[in-house]
Amino acid sequence: MATAExxxxxxxxxxxxxxxxGRIKELGEKVLHAASQVDFACECNDAECHDAIAMTIEEFxxxxxxxxxxxxxxxHEDLDVxxxxxxxGSYLIVAKRGAGREFVKQNS
Length: 108
Prior knowledge:
Blueprint: H1 4-31, E1 37-41, E2 52-56, H2 57-64, E3 70-72, E4 82-88, E5 91-96, H3 98-107
Antiparallel strand pairs: 1-2, 3-5, 4-5
Helix pairs in contact: 1-2, 1-3
C-alpha cells in the first residue's frame, strides 16, 4: 500500500505533465483542426519520462474535462497510487487515489 507522501508526489508529477499538455492543446487549437493528431506528453509519475502519446485535440479535451484523469503509456501506470479507468489502444487513462486524488481535486 502506498503512503500518502508517495501518492501526493505522484499526483504532483502528473499535474506538471498535465499543465504541459494543456499548453500543447491550446497551441494545437490555434493552428490545427480539432481532429488533427497531436503528440501529448505521457502523464505518468516518472519525471524522467519523455514518451509521447498521439491523439486528437478532441480526444485530449474530453479526458481533460474530467477531474482526476491522466493519460499514460501502457506499462507506465503505477497501481500503488492510481487505478486504470480505461484502455484506449496506445494509452491508458488513470485516476489518482488517496492523497493524490485530493491534491488533484484541490489543484484542478
